[in-house]
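Sat 14:20. Reprocessing the chain from the morning session after the first attempt stalled halfway. Input below, unchanged.
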Amino acid sequence: MTEHSNARLEPLDIDNDPAAYLALHDKLDEPAVDALLSKREREIRHRAREIVAREVAPRADRADRTHEFAHESVQALLSAGLGGLIFPEHLGGLGDTNVAYAVAMEEVTAGCGATSLIFMTQMHAAYPILLAGSDELAQQYIPGLLDGTRYGALGITEPNAGSDVSSLRTTAVAEQDGYLLNGSKTFITTGDRADVIICFATTDRSLGRRAITPFVVEGGWEGVGHGAPFRKLGMHGSSTAELFFDNVRVPARNRLGSEGGGWQVVMNSVTKSRISAAAQGVGLARAAYARTLALLTRIHGRKLPDEKLFALADMRGAIVQGRLLLHAVARHVDSADDVPRAEIGIMKQCCTDLGWQTAVAATRLLGPYGDLATLGVERCLRDAKVTQIYDGTNEIQRLLIGRETTRALEKLA
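Finished this time. Tokens:
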């Protein structure tokens, strides 16, 4: 390999130069997308992008290589108040829209997918407390999750109960002053270090979804066990682990909502979590596109070969469509009390497929350069894969979309 070729293997400027990062991503903003954002939402995007350029993107490669938990990157975002975008001010939030949250998530993910996974999990842990907890519980736990003084985890998935939440086997047996919790959870983001765990359990397995009940459990309580982080394909700077509950005593006041009311909490919560996953898909697509453009410019100069431009045009068009879909559904969630599950599913499935497909196309377009960890496109591909799996697999989303289509056809008969 020539010396000239070796020079091209150096990390991209956008990884270590915040000004270069901002300049590129600012140039890649689309007027058609911006026209549908409010002034406040554009301000949130700008604030998030600045923090990402300065604090997140420069640490992303190291976190991926070392599997080191992206603590500093997450803390930079949360200390700036971005963790509380959709939460009320009296709990430490900013009271912004779901669209503002979606555009912030895009920016965080474009800088580092693993950081975005930790960042969104803080919201996912806090939201069920806001949704179904008492004012006392909200004041006790939510501010710490939003400002990063406590790490949170959402305990739903079990070894034999992933997408089928109604088949949970973790049990909550009522006692005089609370509940006795027994069971385990798996594939739990931040599970190894969670200070606050939202644990979904069943009070009666024979009742299925009618017995699901969520509880706020502190990670340091007696009987709570944290497994070692799994080794994963991507999202290396975010930890994923098992949780174990061995006769954990939970006060009755730490129950969220009524006994057996957990199914509705899950359904309301996944709307937010699927906005998160969809925003990750869009952010990873944008990151793969931006990195590809930066590298091709380094290799070919400002005049790119037509075959490269054709492929870039396809990517750009798909990303614009994904951003518009994400923002439109998030806007619908802001304005409507009951958004159809199929609409949420379409957003999640299409946007996370976008992240994967764009990263695959980018690695193909770059040839041998696409495979080089130094340049970060292959990291986008690895990080994108899991977004198609969690928060309801994309196969489950297609099933939900298909069922709603069938119901609509039946109404026409």
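Confidence is low (pLDDT under 50) at residues 1-7.
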